[in-house]
Amino acid sequence: MRILIADDQAKVRFALRVLLERQSGLKVIGEAANGEDLLSQAKDLQPDLVLLAWELPGICCSELASALRQACPGLTVIALSGRPEAHGAALAAGVDTFVSKGDPPERLLAAIGQANQVHLGGQD
């Protein structure tokens, strides 16, 4: 599964990259620090999954989720936020899953695993 990481904090992007690259079958293909860069990279790289920091600067994240879907049909979007109360807004905007940045890494890996199964046609 090809993953694009979008977070304005370099330390968070680095930690996510390290975590994901240790997993079999996952490949980080790019990183973005703002909405405009994310949308540009998504159009060019056509990832299978985007990890989207819900407070990403630039384009409003609810608009960004819709733009990503148009640019990359079949894309899975997992929203990440340090504010658990953003859960409802993220799901209402059309992301597939929401994971709090305060959750253990296993929660994120489980969400990615479910998305990967769907991507591979393992389940709906």
Tally of individual helices: 5
Net shape? globular
| CATH superfamily caption | Response regulator
CATH topology: Rossmann fold
CATH architecture: 3-Layer(aba) Sandwich
Report the uncertain regions. Answer: none
* Beta-strand proportion: 15-25%
CATH class: Alpha Beta
Structural class: alpha/beta
Count the domains: 1
Distance between the termini: 17 Å
Indicate the radius of gyration in whole angstroms: 13 Å
The H/E string reads EHEHEHEHEH
Give the overall average pLDDT. Answer: 92
How are the strands of the largest sheet arranged?
Answer: 2-1-3-4-5
Describe the main β-sheet briefly.
5 strands, parallel
The tally of beta strands, per DSSP, is: 5
What's the short version?
By secondary structure, the chain is α/β, with parallel strands linked by helices. 44% of the residues lie in helices and 21% in strands.
Quick tags:
124 residues, alpha/beta, 5 strands, 44% helix, globular
Characterise the protein shown here.
The chain is α/β, with parallel strands linked by helices. The protein has a single domain, classed as Response regulator (Rossmann fold, 3-Layer(aba) Sandwich). It is built from five helices and five strands. The chain has helices at residues 10-21, 35-45, 61-71, 87-92, 105-119, and strands at residues 2-6, 27-32, 49-53, 76-81, 97-100. The chain has a five-stranded parallel sheet, sandwiched between helices. Strand 1 (2-6), helix 1 (10-21) and strand 2 form a beta-alpha-beta unit. Helix 2 packs parallel to helix 3 (61-71). The radius of gyration is 13 Å and the shape is globular. It starts with a strand and ends in a 5-residue tail after the last helix. The relative contact order is 0.17. The mean pLDDT is 92.
